[in-house]
Amino acid sequence: MFTSLGRAPAQYDTFPAWNPGVIVVVEQAIREAWRTMLRDHQAILATHDEDRITDCLLDILVDMRTAGSVPGFTANFFGMPARDSKLSDWLGVSIDKTPDITVYPARPRPGISHARHDALFLECKVLHRQRRLTQYGDEGIQRFLDGRYAWRMPHAHMVAYVFSATDRQPDSALTTHFKRRRAGSLVQTNAQRLALESGPVQVAPAGCAHTRAVVQTSHLRSAPVLHGRDNPIVLRHLWLCDPA
């Protein structure tokens, strides 16, 4: 039973994946924006504040898109990057879901029925002191698995602002995290909790000393439910590190 505030997704399916080269362009732009932050915005980085860092990163990305300083990351190919753009969850019960960064194509892709949901969605998390991989998983990865974020897309991104001395390599740090058992009445590993299907595996090299190789994981979503088959999502993990 659905209330008037929600909607039943009777004919739901995921959109086709974006071209891998297009995804890499966005990752390169974010890495270049991070290098600019390290050079020009140390005071903001020193706050270790996720929202302030993301807001500054978006300002830089917008300027880069205008200037065309990263090949391919221009207004010809991408819309204006946005922070906390509100969208509905998969049932339409909430219309206030806000992935940290949303990047749309400059022009709608043909055959896409609901263009607001056709984007690269990136969720950002600070890794620093008590904010560690448990939060990264429970308050980041999980949002892509239960129909809150990117529910029409077959892929999405996790972005880490890494200030922790012990979590500086995503492949090894995530591997260790997924193997760790969680306390509670239901004994399970983080891999089970986050429905890990495969990975982590490196899929793109590090861009410089302050970024890491892009790591990919695949997870089985609990929602939306597809008729007669599983609904996986591929997450690309982009880790941006301080100079320490």
Summarize the topology.
Layout: H1 20-40, H2 42-46, H3 50-67, E1 82-83, E2 101-103, E3 120-127, H4 133-138, E4 155-162, H5 170-179, E5 181-182, E6 188-189, H6 190-193, E7 196-204, E8 214-220, E9 232-241
Helix pairs in contact: 1-3
Q: Can you put this structure into words, describing what you see?
A:
This protein is an alpha+beta fold and 244 residues long. It has one domain (20-241). The protein has helices at residues 20-40, 42-46, 50-67, 133-138, 170-179, 190-193, and strands spanning 82-83, 101-103, 120-127, 155-162, 181-182, 188-189, 196-204, 214-220, 232-241. A seven-stranded mixed beta sheet has the order 1-2-3-4-9-8-7, sandwiched between helices. Strands 5-6 form a two-stranded antiparallel sheet. Helix 1 (20-40) crosses helix 3. The radius of gyration is 18 Å and the shape is globular. The termini are far apart.
